[in-house]
Amino acid sequence: DGRPLSESLANHPGIFSPLYTSMVHSGEAGGNIQEILKRLAIFLEKEDEFKNSLRASLTYPFFILIVSTLTVVILLAFVIPRLVGMFEDMGQILPLPTKILINTSSFLRGYWWFILAVIFMFVFFIRRMYGKPKGRILLDRFKLKLPIFGTIILKTEISRFMHTLSLLLSSGITIISSLDISISATENQILKLEVQKFKDQITGGASFSKCLTESKLFPAFVTNIVVVGEETGTIERSLMRIADDYEREVDRSLKALTRLLEPVIILIMGLIVGFIVLSMLLPIFEINLIVR
Question: What's 94's DSSP letter?
């Protein structure tokens, strides 16, 4: 109908993000729509590759954890009760580990509905809290303060933010508009609030590097690279370098964490299963000693 492509894309926000439509609009205005679409394709491919890398790194440890937990639950809920009857028929005083195991099994079988209700209530509470602005800020702040995981989350968010900002600036979009779009593309609310401050400070005449220097959220590495980029007029390349460096760091950290998590989970579950087996064998050993 004679409307520009960017306007048509904006009518479908569920499919095309503000980043996408803004860059297409910039390409239309600058007459380099082909180059902009190529950059968008590369950007989306890298984003997808990064997300797949995150999923792949965390899938296996979680799979081991779920299978191990189910194994323990099945032992406690179905296997142990069958052996308890045998011990009760013997009329023997049971060792402390066996008593603990039997009580745990009885609680699990008698109050499984209560345990499920608590889990569902907890999930509902977290989802409800995350749906409110103040609750989401509290949860996102808590995420950033987590040991090990907090640093990985922050670097992931900074990498996405810098990548988006670099792409927008290289497409000829102003720093204020770029920050505005980057805010909408950022998931962590704490980072969003920080970038909103940058936008206000830059409007007041401050440089981007000065905003980063005054922020407690961005490390010195980021600030130094941006300062060099501003001085040499290659800010877009500097931002892309930060994004790529942090992306590699996150990938390395997740792989190292995965290698560490696997044996830790196996060790913990092995100890739990070992305790269950030992608790079942102790009464049998005592019966053998009495018989002898």
Answer: P
